[in-house]
Structures are given as structure tokens and as C-alpha cells.
Amino acid sequence: MNPVNLLLQPPMSTQLAPATDDIQLHHLLKQDDDATAVAELSDELKARLQHEIKIGLESIADPVVRELVQNIFSEVIRIFNRLSLIQQKLNELDTLQENLSILELLQFEIRYLIEFIEARAMYTPGVDQRLLETFDGISYGMSHDVKRVFERELTSDIRNKSIPVVYGKILHAHGLLSNCFQQTFITLLQVLNPKLDPLDLFDDFEERLRQSLLLCNELSALMRVVKQAESQPTPEVLQEVVDKSLEFRDGSMQYLMYRDWRGYEHHSLALITSIQSNLDSKNLLHQFACYLEVLYGHVKMRAVIRDLFPQSNDESDGDLDPQAPPLPS
Fold it and tell me: Which DSSP letter does residue 161 get?
């Protein structure tokens, strides 16, 4: 079925459960606008994104690969438009059903894009290794966030929840998807144009600063727990390592670049498995601590907070991207 036709269909007949807490609802609607801010697709932003896409595509000599990448950018722009539409309706309570319908459509379109990348883009002759790795990374990241949004946030019974709950779920899903596709866009564009400054792209410097500082704080807290476990490997401390590692994975990990997600999950999963199996985890604790220190050092080198950590400029590790922008959650 044509996605446009899906969007035009009337909303499902199931009604949202009536609100039971007017105070909670009032609080939700009075939240700072920055909490839901993803760059709205104004004419100025559209022109800026199209300009950067044009520059990026000009770096691709192979016409087949160029068309392939252009198609991916076009789908991402389409998703930006859907998210912008949701954002515009966030404070209109009588449009919650419509927002849920748009999100259902988004799920269809995002899964189509993931399938397109995995089944076609990854196997197109002429795609160089760096672009292949980028396709793999953004596909992995999108798949992770689609599962998180549509299998954990917007479950099948969402339309039976109270209005404040539905509003909160839509707000959170909107933020996660906005983060996901801003990062997807920037990651792909920077491969084509390494000179691109992501800070100039979406005009959300303050949000990126806030998210980067949050990420530094969370990484620092996790490092302290891991180091404590190295010197004091009691069952209670080891369990705290497990809990904090999972909490980071399900939360602040989204502010890392996609290519760092696998590294974090690899180290943390090995350590968690060892702890839960009552094995000697000393070496894995040390490896995880070293990995977190490198990761933390490079997060501090991001452009938005680099001046706050002048000592970080001497650190170097080409595998992690110090310029990776954190995006709204």
C-alpha cells in the first residue's frame, strides 16, 4: 500500500483513555520548548541541507553510487518532514491520534530505508569500503532505535493509555527518532565532505552542549563504578557495574556515534556475562575501564565542549570521532 494512502486513512477507532491527572498534563504541556526541539524544516534549513547534500554528492564519481546515496538522503529528508509535522502538533491534544498514525507510517518508512540499505546499498558495485562501513553503521543505529521506539515505547496498547502517558511516549519517541536521523544525516554527509562542521548544520548548539556534558557525566560515573569493582570486586559492587552498564546502554549510549555503539556493547556484554556467570572478571573489568577512558577522552574533544577540557587536545585515537555531535533525545 502507498505510504501516502496510509497517512490519509482515518485514525484507528480506539479512543485514548481519558486523562486522570490534569496537573500532570498541564506540566507536560508547559515543558520547555527545547525539550522537544529538533530542527524544524524551515525554508532556510531545507536550503542548507540541500546545499550540503549537493556538495557531498559532487564528491562521488560513480553515477550509480551517487544516485544510491541521493536516494538515502531523500528518504532521510522525508523522515525529517514527518518528524517536523509531529513536532508542530505536539501541544495540540486533539491531534495525538494523528501523531500516532504518523509514527506508524514512520515505522513503515524507516524499515523500508533499513531494508534498502542492507539489501541494495551494501551490495552495489562501486561503493568503496568507507561508504560500506558507514552504511553498516547507520543501518545498525536505525535498527536499534526503531526497535527501541516501536517495541518498547509505542507498544500495541498505546492508544488505550491516558492522554498524559500517550503525550509523554510520543514526545520521547519523537526525540529518539530526531536524534537518530540527525546523526544518520551527519554521519553520511561527513564521509562525503570531511570539512563539514555539524555545529553549523542544525542550529542546536546549546542542545548539543547539554547532551555532551550529560554524556561526559554518565561516562565518568560508569568509570568510577568499574574502577571501584577492580579494587573491591564484591558481589554488590559487581552487580552495580552490571546495572550501570545496562543503564548507559539503554540511555546515554544514544549520544555516541553509531560506530562506537558496537564497541561499547561488545565490551559491556562480555563483562556482564562474566559477572553473571560468577567468573573471574578482573581482566574484563580492566579492559572495560581502559575502553571507557579512551571513549571519555574523545567525547571531551568534541567541538561543542573542547574548550572546557583543554587538556584533552593532546589525546589521540583515530578509531573514535572527537567531532561526533550528540543529538537531541
Answer: S
Distances 246 to 134, 145, 192 between C-alpha atoms, Å:
26, 16, 34
Burial class (CB in 10 A: 0-12, 13-18, 19+), 161: middle
Q: Judge whether 328 and 179 are in contact, CB under 8 Å.
A: yes
Residues of the chain with pLDDT > 70, as a percent, come to 73
Tell me the C-alpha to C-alpha distance, in Å, between residue 210 and each of 35, 50, 216, 245, 328.
11, 27, 10, 21, 9
The per-residue pLDDT for range 106-127, each reduced to its tens digit, is 888 999 999 999 999 999 998 8
pLDDT the model gives residue 309: 58
pTM listed for this prediction: 0.59
Q: What is the DSSP letter of 162?
A: B
Q: Where are the alpha helices (DSSP H) in 198-281?
A: 205-231, 235-250, 258-276
Give, to the nearest 10 degrees, the angle between helix 163-192 and helix 129-148.
180
